[in-house]
Amino acid sequence: MKFIGKYGEHLVLSQLLKLDIEAYLAIKSNQEDYDITVVLESSRVLRIQVKTTDLYNQNTNNSISGVEKRYDFLVLVILDKNTEHLFIMSREEALALKGSSVKFSCSFKQSGVSKIKPELEKYRDNWLTLTGA
Q: Which domain of life is it from (predicted)?
């Protein structure tokens, strides 16, 4: 997919709006560390970083960079044929999962087939973490 990053950002934006969460695409000129701005009812603002990858790309473990940027929550979008998997976690959780690795790895190969790392499952569709933050 040519515009995979933009696809992921708009997918996350539409999910947030569907959940009645006020959200806007960030202005890249002065909000370069995140992609979406969320405004909660309490007038609290959250910065969302979206990272999108294709599970079946040529990368062995779908490593992504940029998780060390300044944001509040990471939404990881993994495209799997005709399905989208969304994982929502805090910046601290993303950094802990990344560990000492240079990049954040979100998959592995088993018998030549790409699989999503099991440690991501607890973050699947974890939208409530945003409103309960």
A: Bacteria
HSE-CB of 16 using CA atoms within 13 angstroms: 27
Asked if 37 and 45 count as a contact pair (C-beta separation under 8 A), the reply is: yes
50-109 pLDDT, tens digit each: 999 988 877 666 788 888 899 999 999 999 888 999 999 999 999 999 988 888 888 888
Q: Domains along the chain? A: 4-131 (3.40.1350.10)
